[in-house]
Description:
8% strand, 2 strands
Amino acid sequence: MALLGNLIWFLFGGLVMAVGWFLLGLLMFVSIIGIPWGRACFMLGSFCLWPFGREIVSRRAVTGKDDIGTGPLGFVGNVIWFCCGGFLLALGHLASALLCFLTIIGIPFGLQHLKLVGASLAPIGKTVVERG
């Protein structure tokens, strides 16, 4: 079922959204300061390509220990991200989710957009893992 959801997602908007995340990631990599946000953009871009069967979790939950992105510097990075565009990305995903919720068929896609809302607000310190 995840494969079917991913194929439909990919054909009807997932590819476009992923390209947008990848372009934003490349823009972030232009400066050395933007590398943590660029890394997060590529992680979210890959999630945008194939979201079904995967989920976004804290790296602390996966590794069992703190790293630079899950500690105080990660918090500061997320605050900077939120102020510089994360809020607008989250609003875009929220609007897309609301549009998807207008139809019964679009509900699973709207739920994926809601996952991306949370990730858009605070991507530093997160990673994508296979579900189950």
